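#lab-general

N.A. 3:47 PM
ok so I finally got the sequence cleaned up, no stray characters, all 105 residues accounted for. can someone with queue access submit it? mine expired

B.Y. 3:52 PM
send it over

N.A. 3:53 PM
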Amino acid sequence: MPMMMRRFRFAHDPDVESLRMQLRAEVGARLASERSVEMSSGGGVVELLSMDAIGLVYASKVCVVNGGESERAPWTPPGWASRPWVDVPWLTKLKLWIGPTKLVG
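B.Y. 4:20 PM
back already:
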């Protein structure tokens, strides 16, 4: 899968570590690692880079929940992301991995 990127603008410069902790609670340690989802911030903008669509969707969700606004068109999490990934049954995860998977709400 190709590298994907999203940028979110915040009113203040957010703490990337607290965003990562919230992401870890949503997706678990492996998908929240720096190797899976890269997060950088500066000037009130958080940039997310990932080759993992699931990790990117949940990282984007964490940004939106914390007051971030997508720099492009408004972004809302897809319906399947309303539940933390760690709570999703494995058969549902398999269906999402196989696809087609909708990345926006």
